[in-house]
Predict the structure of Isoprenyl transferase.
Amino acid sequence: MKLHTIPAHIAVIMDGNGRWAENQGKKRTEGHREGANAIDRLLDVALEYKIPNISLYAFSTENWKRPITEIQAIFGLLVEFIETRLDTIHAKGIRIHHSGARNKLSKTVLKKIDHAMAVTKKNKKLTANFCLNYGGHEEILSNFSRVMAARKAKKETLDKPISPKEFEKYLYTSPLPPVDLLIRTAGEQRISNFLLWQSAYAEMYFTSTLWPDFGRTSLEEALLFFDSRKRKFGGLL
Ligand code: IPE
Ligand code: IPE
Ligand code: MG
């Protein structure tokens, strides 16, 4: 497939795991398991198209409202995902990054993520940013404290205005570029507190495909959509 522009950063709201499972008379957890396989496919196609950054919304700050059994299943699958895929991910030149608050995440989960980040930190082909215990509001609010802490450490004045450049340096996603293309699966057309700052000028692509069914053609359709957009960033063409 021939494309003129490739997004530098794609963000994916991987929605519809539960509905996928319910449609097949399976437990919601089975949907999350299939969702993990869809991540493998996405990363492979992303490598092929030389997409440098992908953010994956895996667990939001609002998802703690779900039953504890489902929460445990999701984190169990995440730990399993890292254990079973880390070697292949590393061999493919993928760097793992985490975005989200560390509080509330268990020691086991943090240990796995930190290990995966350390192992893959020099990889350059693709950054897979796992957004876990991530919320756009929490990120923006806590970022003020990170900016101020950094200023204090450098003995700088605390009351000069914050520039976007200074602010962005401390976001969880730093040093990833802004989101060019935001994809949401499963028919819902809302942002659900995902990458609010970073998606300010993102092109939005919605599909009714449920996340576990998302594959090569689905990503290619999204890339074609992106390629057809005329981006103006507030200016004139
Ligand atoms: C998205 O699928 C995965 C997570 C939020 C962890 P859902 O679990 O939200 O699936 P639906 O929306 O109930 O179908
Ligand atoms: C968004 O999906 C969060 C993730 C995909 C991790 P939700 O299913 O939680 O979003 P809402 O509740 O439909 O807005
Ligand atoms: Mg959902």
Notes: Residues 13-15, 57-60, 63, 188, 190, 192 surround IPE (ligand 2) (CB under 6 Å). Residues 105 and 133 are 7 Å apart (CA to CA).
